[in-house]
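Good day; I would like, with your permission, to put a structural problem before you. What I wish to show you is a protein chain and, alongside it, a tokenised description of its three-dimensional fold. Here, with my thanks, is the record as I have it:
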Amino acid sequence: MFAAAATPPKLSTLILLSALSVGSLNMFVASLSNIATDFDADYSLVNLSIAGYAAMTAVLQLIMGPMSDRFGRRPVILIGLSVFTLASFGCLLADNIWTFLFFRLLQGAIISGSVLSNAVVRDMVPAKRAASLLGYLAMAWAVAPMLGPMLGGVLDELFGWRASFVAFAGFGGLILVLCWFDLGETNKTPSATFRAQLRTYPVLFRSRRFWGYALCMAFSVGAFYAFLGGAPLVAKTMFGMSAGTLGFFIGTITVGFFLGSFLSGRYAERYPLTTMMIIGRVVACTGLVIGLLLFFSGFVHLLSLFGATIFVGIGNGLTMPSSSAGAMSVRPELAGSASGLSGALIVGGGAVMSLITGAFLTAGNGAYPLLAVMLLSSFLGLIAALYVLWIDRCEGSGGAI
């Protein structure tokens, strides 16, 4: 009756697991000021619950990927869920800011849900089928960050900020039970020892194809990070937009990503991985070029900015599932390591593009540098996709280096 799962999970289980992993980043973001007041702490310190959490997940991805290749996907995911659930109770019961931040960083263990869900999919099916399934999985990555803050805001209004962590603990416990009964081990060729696993890890660093896939993902998401870093200033200075209205328009790029991910789910299995990647990059670049041309022609309008960024979302939705499937297919026995390493590169690349945007964008120069940086990042992603295509044609699509 209580036997552990012995078969691969349903896609719905992986979707819920990924949604919790992604949504845990920002669900309580509307409560940051209330947390600061409750703990009598500086807002900048409380903000570490977001920035520090993101940094922690980047580091954990580098660790959890190789661990899952050595010990299996199932135990790493179950341990990550257990730590997340217990840490949620720690945040709930915290009586000072330092205790709260300590347990909040421990919540980062939930990143196993998203990074290893990708590896589980790749374990189960070939690369092109994996790209299709990852497209549907990516739809959860789009919806969760939109709905999470809305749910957190409602819970705060009704019950206070700690209610979000009651929800985290409840969701974590429920999905832990679900994974216990439905998520059987999919890594059928684990490394014999952790030392052997570490010796094979550098294979990914020497793989040109892996770096092509990973950099395509990093630069694709980098355009999104640049948008998040620059859109608030542009919206305020050029359009006098309120915070609430800005939140709605920022969601447009996520809606685009949802649509692109759906299209990946429908069509990725029919076309080569590089075809989907290149189409996605061309869509993103085309939208940004049109946006810049509209601004230069004097058409300073919301559609010039946010219409262009919708194309970035669609392009990323088309690109990311195939890039991820490709990165994990370079060495299928290292799928977890590849997913973790590429995930960390995405976070790092996004941070770099956000910093570049901040360095060039000012209140006086408008949307031009924002769209230009986004175009640069998207174009570099296109170059990376074309690089993978070149390797495929030179060495054959089944090559691994």
About this structure: The mean pLDDT is 84.
